[in-house]
Amino acid sequence: MRQEVEIEYKNLLTETEYNKLKEIYFDRSSTHITQNNYYFDTKDSHLKSAACALRIRTKDGSAEMTLKTPFEGHHNETTLDLSIEKASELISAGYFSLPEDIHTVLIEQGVSFSENVFIVAQLKTERLEIKKPHSIIVLDKSYYSNEVDYELEVEADSISIGKNVFNTILKNNKIPKRATENKIARAFNATQ
């Protein structure tokens, strides 16, 4: 199990803005990853109500389960590595009871329930990443329901570095800041 604070800044992009940033910041040496994300919650949306999110992600022959919990405007992430076989089993079943480690973290957050979690949304992302000193610049093209969207993410070691890199990219490319829901919210809302 791994735990870390995730400091990230996000902004939805138009397709034109996405293509412009892709041309400016990314080349053939950039990391290209296809991720399949499956989001889970209880039938009564206990996780969503507590501003938490649970996903299983598969990519490049690996899989993981991640619980995101709120932390000072960002997130704490608790991640369990899964075998592809175990991830496929949980995804195919469409529901499961929480692993003990995840349940313990939720209890520490004041969230407790004993019911199973179910798939509430799924999303496929084509991700481009470039590592910079103390930050990662990410471009995502995501597919869910009948939607496609484009997003800039900056993940950083600190709030000040993250804000600076994020704001500089937007300013230099004349991209307006847009209120950006997280991926699970966008994917879930598209199913409603």
Automatic annotation (TrEMBL):
SUPFAM superfamilies for the chain: CYTH-like phosphatases (SSF55154)
Short name of one Pfam family: CYTH
Gene3D superfamilies registered for this protein in UniProt: Hypothetical Protein Pfu-838710-001
InterPro entries xref list: CYTH-like_dom_sf, CYTH_domain, Uncharacterised_YjbK
Domain CYTH: 4-192
Superkingdom per UniProt: Bacteria
Name recorded for this polypeptide: Uncharacterized protein YjbK
Species of the source: Alkalibacterium gilvum
